[in-house]
Structures are given as C-alpha cells and as structure tokens.
Automatic annotation (TrEMBL):
InterPro entries: POL2
Subcellular location(s) per record: Nucleus
Name of the gene this protein is made from: DPOE1
Keywords attached to this entry: 4Fe-4S, DNA replication, DNA-binding, DNA-directed DNA polymerase, Iron, Iron-sulfur, Metal-binding, Nucleotidyltransferase, Nucleus, Transferase, Zinc, Zinc-finger
PANTHER family, per database record: DNA POLYMERASE EPSILON CATALYTIC SUBUNIT A
Cofactor field: [4Fe-4S] cluster
Family from the record: Belongs to the DNA polymerase type-B family.
One BP annotation, GO: leading strand elongation
GO CC terms of this entry: epsilon DNA polymerase complex
Molecular-function GO terms, alphabetical: 4 iron, 4 sulfur cluster binding; DNA binding; DNA-directed DNA polymerase activity; single-stranded DNA 3'-5' DNA exonuclease activity; zinc ion binding
Role description: DNA polymerase II participates in chromosomal DNA replication.
Class of enzymatic activity (EC top level): transferase
Signal sequence, renumbered to the chain: none
Name listed for the protein in its UniProt record: DNA polymerase epsilon catalytic subunit
Amino acid sequence: MNMVSVLIESMSCLIESLLVSQASVYNVLIKSKEITNYIEFHKDRFVDSKKIVLEEFDTVNPGIFRADFKHKFSNNDKLIDLIIDEVDEILIDYKNYTDYNLVKNLLIDDLRRCKGSYDDFGNIYRLSFDCMYPNIILTNNIQPHAIITGNTHDRCDFNSGNSNCNKK
C-alpha cells in the first residue's frame, strides 16, 4: 500500500482519536460507536468491512455550529427513560464513591429535564472538517509519533537532540 493510501485510510481514525482524547480532557460527552452484529449488504453486495471513503463523507452542513444561536433540540424520551432505568449499571464503576447517590440523583434529574423538545442556546459545538483531513494533518505536522509522549522523537522536525520535546 502506498503512502497516500495509508494517509487516506488512517487519517479519519487519527482525527477521531485526537478529538476523543481532547473531549475527555474537557469533559465533553461523546456518543459511543455503534457496533452492529448483523450481516449487511450494499448494492446487493456483501459488506465484509466498512471503510470511510474520503470523497463520501456525509455531513449535514459543513462548518462550525455556534452556541450563540438558538437551536431546536429534541431528545428521544424512550432512550432517556432507558438510561434512567439502567443508571446503576452505567455507573457501576463509581458505586464505591462516597457521594455516589448524590451524583446519581443529580444525573437523573438532569436527564429528566432533557425530555421533550425545546429551543435553547446550545453548549454543543459541531465542527465539520469535510475533506480537510489531509490538510489538517499535513499543515499541523500531526503524526502519531509526535503526539504520543513528550519525549524526543527521531524524525520530529522540532528535535534538538536533548531529551525534552521542543514542539509547542
């Protein structure tokens, strides 16, 4: 496989992992990936594995959706009820914390307030990169070996020979 193909196939995973890692740092809620266990067909052909084809990204509207405009939010009430019913199973890793019941009740109250649809200023930002992945990666010199640790990397442009990373 040539380098261009490797870049095209791996860049969406790289950007996704960068966004997910930063989202966890800033406590941004991330939807889990959907895993399907059923056989799938596309144009009467069996789908063995799914890959994102660069030219076929599906986006609603490319751009940045800001929090200073009112948006209509609608939530799936059945899904919220399901989450409330299974909140103990979802939070099982935190069951031994001293304020578990307080946090659980606050979470349930917040979930109940989310039911229905409403117009409000959102705290949700959506940035659609469209087909800018190669430009983002190449312009910012985003490479896996340059972001994993703060140690010096052999091929890093910012390597000055000492043991500290100079990329800022």
